[in-house]
Structures are given as structure tokens and as C-alpha cells.
Amino acid sequence: MKRKLRDLPPALLMLVPSLGLLAVWTIYPLVRAVDYGHKACDISVRNCRDVGWDRYWTVFQSKEFQDALLVSLKLALMTVPVGLVLGIGLAVLADKQLKGIGIFRTVFSSTVATSVAVASLVWFVLLQPQVGVLADLLSGWIPKLKNPGLLNDSSTALPAVALSSIWASLGFTFIIIMAGLQSVPRDLYESAFVDGAGSFRRFTNVTLPMLTPSILFVTVVLTTRALQAYGEIALLTGGGPQDTKATTTIPYLIYGNNSLVHNDIGIKSASAVLLFLLCLTFAAVQFRGFGKRVHYGN
Amino acid sequence: MRTVRNSRRTHGFAVLVAVGLLAAACSDGGSITDTGDTITTTVPGDTMAPTTTVAADTLPDCPTDALASATGPVEISFWHGMSSVLNDELIKLTDLYNSSQTKVHVTLTGQTYETTIDNYLQASQSSRPDLVQMPEYMVQSLVDTHSTVPVGKCIAASGFDTSSFLPTALTAYSTQGVQWGMPFNLSNPVLYYSKKAFTAAGLDPNKPPQSLDELRADSQKIVDSGAAKYGLALDSGFDSGGGWYVEQWFAKAQEFYVDGDNGRTNRATQVLYNNQTGADLLTFLQTMINDGLAVSVGDNAGGQDDLLKLADAKEPAAMSIHTSAALGGALSILASGTFPNLKDTDLGIGPMPGPDGKPGALIGGASLWPVDSGDDVKTAATWDFIQFLVSAEQQSEWASVTGYIPVRTDALSVDPYKTKLATDPRFSVAYDQLKASPDALTSAGPVVGPLREMRSVLAQAIAKVFGGADVKATLADASAQANQLITNYNQLNGG
């Protein structure tokens, strides 16, 4: 205890740079957002009036927020499991000592260098119903590609956005899982092999347990990304089709070009803080749910 | 033991969260626009009576002669929302200005309109630029920021001659007798059509439809003859078919869109589109779709889906309504041969068809707003640059490259626009229909605080109508929601 106290001043000193940045760029804006959330302000945010902390509850209960919440949850459900399974699958495939495997590793991880904007534009051009490549090639099998277009149909718009999103984050998942795989001690596989475990048993009883820290990390990041999805929505659908707002996620409800609360900093802030709480809750549940099953080695 | 208790607690927490989400999801919440902005009980001193006049002496002055006292070059920052061809051309004009004189140097910051608006509104006055370009839907909001120098004051102080300006262009950016912004880039929706499809359908490729009835009749011929799969491509984008065009159609019908004479004489308090004109219009569009004469390309998130429908190799439409500002870009893309089935010479431009076929259109596009920095020299330098941008020579150059409409009539007799009009009459369609607009406040377009949000509301309604929803009920819903937005806005800003 004494030693801990003695270490405190130098520790604090070394933490100052990152704490400073955190305070300026994260804590301060968060505090301001929490404060704005219970205010109603004029257009240039000069004059504000207190509307009470129950604003948070009424915003949470509002039809638009509930609809957006549902869309955000659906998007997370579509992207996280599929992205995770694909990432693990590709990583296991690429974790072989084969000639030329470097080419595949580069290809599989390439989307990590692709911004959401670029990835979305690629998919936008592919899926464009009038002159897009996929629309003309595959509309015989999938008529919706042409009319009205996957992104223009309420039932397919969100899956199409999810497709682009999964593709864009696949490189990230691949790299993290790959790194996890490389750190699995080879002797574990050897002893499992000696004990008579087949390749499937080795995967379920050695690989997966040893990968749990990476999987937990990727799950938390992918879930947060899905809940915060904005770029792909803005570029692919603009939150539409508008008649059902099928892809209006919470971030798009807050920031989107056609947001109803575009210039209303109070309601926007309240929604953003609610989104933050949502991400926090999910991360907490994932950490605790996974908690005891995560194997951090020795 | 500890593990079991922990996991139970975790499960309990997760269940609690899930139940909470479900409970909230089942509760019958109101609209997000009704979450506390509007106070129903009157708080003393918080009632906002509509103002009828703006006292000119309370507005910032524009000392245009202050530039003479500047010792070195005055640095001016200009935030604008121009992109691609438009951005290139604005850079060209600004470079020309910077090199043509030594007193003022302008630095451009280009973003989208939306980003410019957000950054401008949320910045402190000292972080704002010296000059900002704002689209037509921002007039009331910008007035309510109390952050700009009305150009009317600059015009008066410098004796700037506006006699050759299009009167509607000036009116569009003035309310309650104050000229707020200087019109710079004017556009309005025009009809883009495939001359090839018109010829194939036995129609005169140089006689596009003027009225909605003709639009339907021509579409019928095009579809019947097989010249194109659809007559007309519609969209429900909030800055096009879902919002802006409805404002245009109301102007063409010479009806107000919001009260207070479109918000020009009094602050607007409600929308007026929930009437027979609105219902007739939406019913017309819905019937066109139901009868297979028109097709909706959706929300047009990319902004070009409706135009691309004309170039569609498999299921093209023959006509589409689109902003005239896209003409320059569209022609250069078609001329590059990207779309073998539609060449630049195949593209026809006609006036936007309206309820009774009479010409006329609202001003779209954007205007220039000098920002009140409190620095007389900067204000005067900004005004100098504005005068350059709206001179007949620069407007002629600007319009001939972009497809925007010159803000002044004398730009038409100056090259390169003069030659452009003579060689390609497609560039004069937007100008002609603007010039033909009746000189009335109905032709000046709505000025109302949350116009952008109101367009989103209407865009959703129109998307529903395109999908087959009941016109009257949908229009009534949209109107109620728009009125809520206006009430909120006026309570927070109306003073």
C-alpha cells in the first residue's frame, strides 16, 4: 500500500498527456452533451432554456428514437455475428504455412485500409439500379437489384447496408483474429494431437478458447461500430427508403442530412448521450457475459 | 461459487436491459420533435409575438469605404458549398479576383452546404468566416443568428447599381424589407428529357410538355410506343422531388406555401400545403406511377438516380425533373460517351411542367452573406469581393460553365454566356422560366426557420404516397408534423 502511494505522483505525471487529451476531446464534450440534453436552444446555441432532465426519457420513448434503436440493433445483429464468423474463417484459412499465403493475407486484410466512405462508394456504384454493374448482371435472378434497387427497397436496404459494412470491417476482424491465432502456443496443438484430438476438436477445444480475448475485443468493437454506423448510411441510403426510414440508425437520426432535429442541439445531444449509454451497456454486458469464458493465458 | 453468482448477476443485468428496451418499445411515444422544445404554459417574458418589421438601425452597418484605409492586403475567408465542376469554377473566379487586385486576398473553404451550415451555426462569431454561401432554405435561420451584415446596407452605402438584377432573385433573399443575402448562384428545376425517346414516340423533340396534363399525355405516348419503359422518372429526395419541387408547384399555382405571405411579411407559423392544390398534385403523381407512366427512383441518396434513369440501358425513363445547376456537369458526362444510349446531343431541356402550363419558378441555389466581424475593413473587403462575383462579366462566365442562372440580365449580352446561349439554347431554359415568374410574393418562395426539416417531413410523406398511401391522410400528417417543427422553432428563435 505504501509503495502504491509512493508511485502515485510519477504515475500521474506520466498519465497527464493522455488524461489531458481525454479530458479535452472526450470528457469535456461528453459533459457538455449531457448538459445540452436537458436544454432547448436557439439556432446558434446562444440562448438556452432548461427543459428538465426527463427530456432524456421522452426522447428515448419517442417514436423516431425507438424506430432508430430497432434499426441500429438489427444492423448490429446482421453485421456482428456474420462479420465475426467470416473473419475467424478467413483467419483460420490463412493461418497455414503455404507458399504464397502472404498474397491471401494481404487480400483478406486489405479492407482495413479502406475507409467507410470508400467502401460505401464502391458498393453504391455496384448496387446502383440504373447503371450499376450488379443490377444489369444479376437482375435476372434478383429482380429487386434493378427495380427498385436493393437500397431503395424497405426489406432489402438494411441487409444491403450490412453487406457493405461487413465487407468493410472484415479486414479489421481478420487482422485481430490472425494475430490471436499466431499467439496460440504450438505445443498446445501438439499435445492435443497426441491425445488423439481431430482437427475439429483441436479447433473447438484449443483454437477457440485461446482466441476468446481477441473474439471479445472484436465483438465489442464491431458492436460499437454497428451502433455508431453513420458513414455507410449517409452514402448508401440517406436513412431511407424514407417511407419506412428502414436504415435510419440512431446516429443518422441525430446527424443525417434529413434529420428532423438537425438544428436542435438539445434533442440531438440527448439522443447522442442515450446512444453512448447504449454502447456502454452493450460493452458491459459483453465483457461480463464473456468474462469468465475469456482465457487470457497465464 | 463466485463464478455462478457473477454470471447470475450478469444475466440479471442483461434481462433488465432487455426488459427496459422492450417496455420502452411498447410504450406509445410521441414524436421526437415533441420532446420539450415547446412549452405549453406561457412563461412570462417568453411569449414570442411575430415581428412585422425589422428596425434597420438595429442591424450592423456596412462601411464600404473602409477598404481605402487598409495598409496591406486584407485577408478574407469564404466558406462555400460548391463541389466538382462548380468548385473548380469558383476557384477559377477567386484566383482571378485575387490576381486582379492587391487590396484583398480571398481564401476558400469548400464543404457541402450541409457541413457549411452546421459549422457556421455552431461556431462562435469569431470563428466564423468573413463571407458564407448559404442555400435558399436557410434564409430565416440565418436571419435569426443575428450574425451577418445585410447586403442591403452595403448596396445603399456604396451606391451599387442593382437595376439590372432579376427582381425575383433579390426578393428571394429579402424579408420584411431587408435585403439579407446577395444572390450568387441561381437554379431552378427544369425538365431533362431524351429527344431520342420523343422522336421514337412520334412526339416533337423540340416541344417538351408544359402542363401536367401534357406531361401525362406525352408519357402515355412514350410508354405505348415502347420508346422508353417509363415516361417520367420521379424521386422523393428532400431537396428535389420530395420537398423542393412541391414548393415550386405551389409557386406555379400562385399559392402560398406557408402563412405570413410565405414568411416574407410576417414570421411564418404554419404550412398551407394541406389543401386541394396539394392533394391534386400528389394524386396526379401517384396516378402516374400506378398507371405505369412514371417510376420512382426512391430517395435519390446519390442525387443523380433520376438522371441516370434516362441513361438506363434496360428500363429507361424519357423525362426527369432536375435542378438546372446540374446541366453543365450532365452535358460533360454525356459528351464523354459514358452512356452509349444517351449522347449529349440527345438531351433536351424544357421548363418544369406545372399545374396549368404557365411558366414560372422559384429561386433555388444560394446567396452570399457577409458576416458581421465588427471589423469595418474586413466587411468592406468582403463587399468588394461580392461585387466582383456578381458583376456581369463573372456571372456570364459562371453561368456558361455551370448551368446556373445569371443573377442579372446584362450578363446575357456579355461573352462567354452570350455565345453559349446562341449556340446552346438549353442553357436559357432556366433563365426564361425564372424571368416569366409573376412578380408576386408567391413567386418568392417560403421563408421559414426549419425549412430543411420540413422538406424531410414532406419527403417522407411523398415517398409514402409514391408507395400507394392515402394522399389526404398522409398530407394531413405531414402538415401537422411540419407545424410542430415551426412552433418549436419560433418558440426558440422568434424574437
From TrEMBL, chain A:
<keyword id="KW-0813">Transport</keyword>
<feature type="transmembrane region" description="Helical">
    <location>
        <begin position="12"/>
        <end position="31"/>
    </location>
</feature>
<keyword id="KW-1133">Transmembrane helix</keyword>
<feature type="transmembrane region" description="Helical">
    <location>
        <begin position="106"/>
        <end position="126"/>
    </location>
</feature>
<feature type="transmembrane region" description="Helical">
    <location>
        <begin position="75"/>
        <end position="94"/>
    </location>
</feature>
<dbReference type="GO" id="GO:0005886">
    <property type="term" value="C:plasma membrane"/>
</dbReference>
<dbReference type="InterPro" id="IPR000515">
    <property type="entry name" value="MetI-like"/>
</dbReference>
<dbReference type="InterPro" id="IPR035906">
    <property type="entry name" value="MetI-like_sf"/>
</dbReference>
<dbReference type="Pfam" id="PF00528">
    <property type="entry name" value="BPD_transp_1"/>
</dbReference>
<keyword id="KW-0812">Transmembrane</keyword>
<keyword id="KW-1003">Cell membrane</keyword>
<keyword id="KW-0472">Membrane</keyword>
<dbReference type="InterPro" id="IPR051393">
    <property type="entry name" value="ABC_transporter_permease"/>
</dbReference>
<dbReference type="GO" id="GO:0055085">
    <property type="term" value="P:transmembrane transport"/>
</dbReference>
<protein>
    <submittedName>
        <fullName>Unannotated protein</fullName>
    </submittedName>
</protein>
<feature type="domain" description="ABC transmembrane type-1">
    <location>
        <begin position="69"/>
        <end position="286"/>
    </location>
</feature>
<feature type="transmembrane region" description="Helical">
    <location>
        <begin position="265"/>
        <end position="285"/>
    </location>
</feature>
<feature type="transmembrane region" description="Helical">
    <location>
        <begin position="157"/>
        <end position="181"/>
    </location>
</feature>
<feature type="transmembrane region" description="Helical">
    <location>
        <begin position="202"/>
        <end position="222"/>
    </location>
</feature>
Automatic annotation (TrEMBL), chain B:
<dbReference type="InterPro" id="IPR006059">
    <property type="entry name" value="SBP"/>
</dbReference>
<dbReference type="Pfam" id="PF13416">
    <property type="entry name" value="SBP_bac_8"/>
</dbReference>
<dbReference type="GO" id="GO:0030313">
    <property type="term" value="C:cell envelope"/>
</dbReference>
<protein>
    <submittedName>
        <fullName>Unannotated protein</fullName>
    </submittedName>
</protein>
<dbReference type="InterPro" id="IPR050490">
    <property type="entry name" value="Bact_solute-bd_prot1"/>
</dbReference>
<keyword id="KW-0732">Signal</keyword>
<keyword id="KW-0813">Transport</keyword>
